[in-house]
Amino acid sequence: FYCLTTEELSMTEFQEKLRQQHEESLHRELEALLSTADHADAQSSRKDFQGFQKLFHRFLQVKGPSVEWSKINRPPEQSVQPYEKIKAKGLPADISTCLSKLAVVKLNGGLGTSMGCKGPKSLISVRNENTFLDLTVQQIEHLNKTFNTDVPLVLMNSFNTDDDTKKILQKYKHHRVNIHTFNQSRYPRINKESLLPIAKNMAVNGENAEAWYPPGHGDIYSSFSNSGLLDKLITEGKEYIFVSNIDNLGATVDLFILHHLMSQPADKRCEFIMEVTDKTRADVKGGTLIQYDDHLRLLEIAQVPKAHVDEFKSVTKFKIFNTNNLWISLPAIRRLQDKNALDMEIIVNPKTLKGGLNVIQLETAVGAAIKSFSNAMGVNVPRSRFLPVKTSSDLLLVMSNLYSLDAGSLTMSKRREFPTTPHVKLGSSFTKVQEFLSRFDNIPDMLELDHLTVSGDVTFGKNVSLKGTVIIIANHGDRIDIPAGAMLENKIVSGNLRILDH
Question: Which of this chain's residues are annotated to bind UTP (predicted)?
């Protein structure tokens, strides 16, 4: 056995005292902040702060990467099933009984700032004037009408998106879908040096606008529970939630996966399914499923020791990544919440604010809880279930004729010869949605496109058609106008091409 030296002991004691000091200082600061809130706000904020203090306590305990690289194994065959195998089971005659036990949860906490839009990202128009939220409501309404059922839609908002989203929800009053909302927590950003909150009071605007953040989607378990919605859905007989990002247009309710969950024997009930899909070069940063200490576990790039980042990104060792489409048992969430047994790795997200102040955000990921659930598994789904719109390059794809829209669902056009999505890279002149839209008279025909790169000041006339590999580069100070009706197949266009009205 091993004895600590006096020096090591005093070092450990010192660190322990320092930890206690940090926690006490944080507690004092949070109490001072709460004293500036009105009664109603103080109650919900106190719950948020308790969650934050737990996270902060764990953040101080954990040093270094949260995984030992040598312990990482590929998940065993049976723990990640191919979708085809699950689909082969077929569907029961009474699929509506399965649906009556389901609720759909969309993660709706994000803003559209990275695409140059104000307000919630879910309110950006993505297809025929329909927003992400419109398409989601249409999908679920179609499901409820087709199977004469009542699948509710639950939106997890953040303090950034709640007001704007609630205003918009009025317009769905006459749709056949019950919509519930709850708010994820509001956590304080902390100064990287002092580890104390930078907020002066509980306001979320003015000088305090940058002082708060929604703490990642791993917060869903506690905020769902705190809101009372978890218990309400369980009382209504719901057994599973299907959780996904609202900007993933491929995340529709899959009846085969739902049936698979419902058809498990009671003692072998699968409490968590993570949909994964095969990695391509574009997905090297996506989290992956691993086997670790006899559990399935989500490994995110933020947890990988620097020396192994290239290995993590390789498509050969880690072949799949997490789509963040998750099927989770409601009674299991209740049980784990009651026991305080949900253990999610902390993601430390450093930010530099406008004035140059360095802060950190402590976050968790919803999929990281997989290791706490019984009989958890992955299902390797087709790429079509992962269609996120994070950038204007993604937006171009979903607005184009590559996809057909039916009852709120986008599917790859039957007229495309091969099922892979073209690789599109649009330069910085296309980053903001408004500017992006102003550069296209209409969206080009992309049915036969493999690869598109556009850089610089480029505009597209009406009815342009792009095929194969097309690269268009306008050098600094030059402008390229692709004329109406142009057909570019395996072409590189560079230099200056101005088309002026006569």
Answer: 121, 184, 216, 247, 390
